[in-house]
Write a structure and sequence with these properties.
GO terms for molecular function: dGTPase activity. With 424 residues, this protein is mainly alpha-helical. Among the domains are: 167 residues, Orthogonal Bundle (Hypothetical protein af1432), CATH 1.10.3210; 61 residues, no CATH class. Helices cover 55% and strands 1% of the residues. It is built from 17 helices and two strands. Helix 5 runs parallel beside helix 14, helix 9 runs antiparallel to helix 12 and helix 15 packs antiparallel against helix 16. The N terminus is likely disordered.
Length: 424
């Protein structure tokens, strides 16, 4: 096996790569190489052009917040995951690589673009951002080639597994067959089956659980921070009963199970409001910015420490890796996190202008898909043009069109759409 064994107890199969390759410089661990490959990838850079929640350039009532993009979110998720993973005994480079990878498959316009692409791709296996991330890591992102073709970044088995939130194909969710979440397309099954070799069926590995919770923590906290900066959230509204009920209604069924008692969410919100660092107002001054940043740090620390403490209580003080443990997040902590998600959803994502924007984005994606279908290989980037010409059937050709659209940023999707539909 190439490379130096990692400092944490990962077995040789975990550091194996789909295509064996020599280590260019002795002394680096296999997971350090994985992290570097993701960090230097074009796919990661493209996330800078994909909106997180608040669109860059939006008018702010109080201060230009330079809101987060998918890239800055991924970097912050990686920092949270690296520290939480290290505290629990995971290899920190492995967890960071997974966190950096978790949003790579997101198409332009985020979940809205994901839904539009899924509609277009219904007859060729659908579209799911997490399945697209695996496809990108193992096939699309140019890094390593074999005589049989591209193997993407050729990450280790453990890194690919750690980046897989949903280790099952479409329609095979272990507890909810109707769930739209899945982690692999049918034509990517060979590498997926290799990644999951020896893994318990449908079970998410420990590092992926750390990545998933770090993602939840980062976006729940930072989306609220961005909403406050942009003037969309008035924290005083969270004391008013009609507004509180509206927030809880958003959370139930979307961020917490549908049978959750809203009173439990009310208790979670009240616990946060009672903290001395909670931001009860925001006016954009330097003092307000510092207080808000402190609240952000306090929330991240609160959520991560709760998970670390509960997991250690359940599994002891040893190194927790792969399938040797489950991440334990107390229910109350999940409720607090869910309330924050619902606050951002209610006051930022559900604004009337956002719905108008989403409708326009769906039109752009679907019209772009139609235009490429009629013109392909014209309009495709050289990489995808070659794949389209080599595709064996219409289903495979349609998947290439989906791959092309998914690779675009928000701006490049609009630019290509305008060019192909004569609106430029």
């Amino acid at each position: 096996m190439e490379g130096t064994a990692p400092p944490t107890p990962y077995d040789p199969t975990s550091v194996a790569r789909w295509a064996p390759e020599p280590d260019k410089r002795p002394g680096r661990t296999a997971f350090q190489r994985d992290r570097a490959r993701v960090l230097h990838s074009a796919a990661l850079r493209r996330l800078a052009g994909k909106t997180q929640v608040v669109t860059p350039g939006d008018h702010s009532q109080v201060w230009d917040a330079s809101p987060r993009t998918r890239l800055t979110h991924s970097l912050e998720c990686a920092q949270v995951g690296r520290e939480l993973g290290a505290a629990l005994g995971c290899d920190p480079d492995l967890v960071e690589a997974a966190c950096l990878s978790h949003d790579l498959g997101h198409p332009p316009f985020g979940h809205n673009g994901e839904q539009a692409l899924n509609e277009f791709a219904e007859d060729c296996g659908g579209f799911e951002g997490n399945a697209q991330s695996l496809r990108l890591l193992t096939r699309i992102e140019p890094k390593r080639f074999t005589p049989e073709g591209s193997v993407g970044l050729n990450l280790t088995r453990a890194a690919l597994d750690a980046a897989t939130k949903y280790p099952w194909p479409r329609g095979a969710h272990p507890t909810d067959p109707a769930s739209p979440k899945f982690g692999v397309y049918d034509d990517d099954r060979p590498v997926f089956d290799w990644v999951r070799e020896g893994a318990p069926a449908d079970r998410v590995c420990f590092e992926a659980q750390v990545m998933d919770w770090s993602d939840d923590v980062a976006y729940s906290v930072h989306d609220v921070e961005d909403g406050l900066h942009a003037g969309h959230i008035d924290p005083n509204c969270l004391h008013a009963e009609p507004e509180r009920r509206a927030v809880f209604a958003v959370a139930v069924g979307r961020y917490v199970p549908a049978d959750t008692d809203p009173a439990e969410l009310a208790e979670a919100l009240d616990r946060l409001l009672a903290q001395e660092w909670w931001p009860h107002g925001y006016d954009g001054t330097a003092v307000a910015q510092a207080r808000l940043k402190d609240a952000t740090s306090q929330l991240i620390g609160r959520f991560c420490l709760a998970a670390e403490t509960a997991t250690r209580l359940a599994h002891g003080n040893g190194r927790l890796t792969r399938y040797g443990a489950e991440l334990v997040v107390p229910r109350g902590t999940r409720m607090e996190c869910a309330v924050l998600k619902a606050v951002a959803d209610r006051y930022v994502m559900q604004r009337a202008e956002q719905e108008r924007l989403r409708a326009d984005q769906r039109i752009v994606v679907l019209e772009l898909a139609e235009a490429l279908t009629l013109r392909a290989p014209h309009g495709l980037d050289p990489q995808f043009r070659t794949l389209f010409e080599r595709a064996p059937d219409d289903r495979a050709r349609k998947r290439v069109i989906v791959d092309q659209i998914a690779s675009l940023t928000d701006a490049s999707a609009r630019s290509l759409h305008a060019r192909l539909t004569g609106q430029a």
